[in-house]
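TASK: fixed-backbone design
INPUT:
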């Protein structure tokens, strides 16, 4: 490589390392979104829209209640929200995960993590308390790439400190997510299949977004960031997002750049 090519390459790679996952403007209005059905039992409250697409069944509202939103059953709004979700999901999945951030087989409970991309080849488990330290940067993102399932034990918790923002926490789940009874959770769950919130589990600030499966609720509280009642750590109002195609292209481009970097490092290693 000549000097200019090297400069452009490493500058681009640096950009990719700091690439952000951005939810599209439609899905940000949702607290709960499913692909097949949304079912609820008990006095669940959701701040933000509740919707389903391509399925159409939403049951349990009432007794569930929706604040600062409405129900969207197989309509254009829910369909666009799924498009936004797919773009964000693919972007999160495509970001490079540093070798030191591979957490396969490690329980998240008891850890304190700083902003970055963290990955699990298979399932992720939270038993106890996970602390996310924003290090004073309200724009910093925490991205969790989970190959299969995300499960929390009863009464587990995610805690945000030092200006970490729930709106900037993304859980990309390869299959299904289950929050245990009385779990206190923060961030955007983006699951390929289904999401289950067991009795009294709370997404204090965040979203339950399932691409193809169901979202099942049972006397829960879900407060979407950037909506009235979202509370501290919500990250403020909705930020205009790049188009879905741009988000997907960026994710694929960053993944390609990462692979090139790895090959170059291998070449230098053997010289």
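OUTPUT:
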């Amino acid at each position: 490589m000549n000097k200019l090519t090297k400069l452009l390459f490493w500058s681009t790679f640096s950009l990719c390392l700091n690439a952000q996952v951005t939810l599209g403007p439609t899905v940000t209005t949702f607290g709960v979104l499913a692909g097949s059905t949304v079912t609820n039992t008990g006095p669940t409250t959701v701040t933000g829209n509740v919707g389903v697409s391509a399925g159409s069944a939403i049951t349990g509202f009432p007794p569930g209640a929706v604040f600062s939103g409405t129900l969207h059953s197989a309509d254009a709004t829910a369909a666009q929200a799924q498009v936004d979700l797919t773009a964000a999901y693919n972007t999160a999945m495509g970001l490079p995960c540093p070798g030191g951030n591979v957490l396969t087989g490690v329980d998240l409970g008891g850890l304190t993590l700083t902003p970055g991309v963290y990955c699990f080849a298979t399932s992720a488990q939270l038993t106890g308390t996970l602390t996310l330290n924003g290090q004073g940067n309200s724009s910093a993102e925490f991205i969790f790439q989970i190959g299969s399932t995300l499960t929390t034990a009863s009464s587990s918790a995610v805690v945000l400190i030092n200006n970490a923002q729930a709106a900037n926490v993304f859980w990309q789940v390869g299959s299904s997510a289950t929050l245990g009874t009385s779990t206190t959770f923060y961030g955007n769950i983006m699951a390929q299949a289904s999401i289950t919130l067991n009795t009294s589990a709370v997404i204090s600030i965040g979203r339950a977004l399932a691409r193809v499966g169901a979202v099942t609720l049972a006397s829960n509280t879900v407060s979407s960031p950037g909506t009235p009642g979202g509370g501290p750590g919500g990250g403020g109002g909705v930020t205009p997002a790049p188009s879905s195609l741009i988000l997907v292209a960026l994710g694929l481009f960053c993944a390609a750049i990462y692979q090139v970097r790895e090959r170059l490092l291998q070449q230098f290693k053997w010289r």
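COMMENT: The longest strand covers residues 202-210.
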